[in-house]
Amino acid sequence: MRRDDSLLFLGDGACCEAKAVAAVHTFSQEVNNPTTSMENVQYVPWTWAEARGHFKSADPGLHVLVSALPDPKETPQRTAYESLARAIIGQQLSTKAAATIWVRFTALHGDVPSPAVVLATGAEVHRSVGVSGQKHGYLQDLARHYLNDPAAFDDVEHLSDPDIIASWTRVKGLGAWTVQMHLMFQLRRPDVFAVDDLGVRRAMERAFAIPADSPKPIYAKRAQSWGPFRTAACRFLWDSLNNQPK
User: Fold this and answer.
1) DSSP letter (8 states) at residue 35
2) Is 223 helix (H, G, I), strand (E, B) or coil?
3) Ranges of each domain in the chain
């Protein structure tokens, strides 16, 4: 029995239930925190047309959804440091609130904040522009990691998605989802499936009649056939809710 199939056989009794919960946890960890390492990876540029063509043959249900949508808009390109700093500031905030604080943050530090300047700035100064004490700590840790090894953030074209996630999540405040957003929007990696994203899951529930708040492996299993264009699938799913991350 495949690991995801075990979710369908919950059976009776606490033992079976515990095994099922353990299976969900293990599968989710593998999806969100992959550990397979690859060196000298080559990523071929992809197009929306290629992704649409793949979905037409691989998943007619997804094809119906994407056929009703235009190609998603490309996002402004940012440095790795700026992208991750913006992500930290925007955590657990509305898009409007995050944008307001980022404007204040860049007014303080410049259009493209310098890690050295951020590291030298005290918590009280950051609080004055709306950055919480906890996020100040995260921004300081990001700046320290960047200054210690800029290439670990700026020279990653040859690294696999799992390697980048494993490296960057060593920074306090950076989880797998945050790094995945950079992989999708800035590095334009083709096959990232953001199973932790609530918007992706809600869109899949609506489009494919998946019961609300199903175990994450259910969504991951449906998305398997979307590879190697799962990034495009997520972008279309967000657009179906008018909810693209910024």
Assistant:
1) -
2) helix
3) 48-73+191-240, 80-185
